[in-house]
Fold this sequence. Notes:
Blueprint: E1 2-5, E2 10-16, E3 22-24, E4 33-34, E5 37-39, E6 44-46, H1 47-54, E7 61-62, H2 81-101, E8 107-112, H3 118-130, E9 134-135, H4 145-149, E10 152-153
Parallel strand pairs: 1-8, 8-9
Antiparallel strand pairs: 1-2, 2-3, 2-4, 5-6, 5-7, 8-10
Amino acid sequence: xxxxxxxxxxxxxxxxxxxxxxxxxxxxxxxxxxxxxxxxxxxxxxxxxxxxxxxxxxxxxxxxxxxxxxxxxxxxxxxxxxxxxxxxxxxxxxxxxxxxxxxxxxxxxxxxxxxxxxxxxxxxxxxxxxxxxxxxxxxxxxxxxxxxxxxxxxxxxxxxxxxxxxx
Length: 167
């Protein structure tokens, strides 16, 4: 299983092996994958390759696709283009996870900012599914990505937030 945070300028991911070992995924020897996506009429190019393609056509580069998801969930008229951009980055993560694990990795916990409401979480879940990744509830993955990144995994079903003890 992999935990992924792709909501900032870079994407980070942690792989949990079947034997319980946890390791960060490396993209070109770095734990940080550019989240941006180069898009034109013909294709989407994510990660370092997308950043390189943007040098020639910067107006076709989306540096942080997750920012296209507004508080209301994003523009309803984008025909799924936001999810496609997010899915392009998640496919790079899934590919690197498969290379690192030695087998296809399809289960994930997708980490999002705590303030994201149900519409943005749903659109991120759709993006993960388009990338061939099946998001799971937070309890399925026990690494500390969510704690260290101050993000929260996407819950499969709505549930109340954590209780804060009185001071």
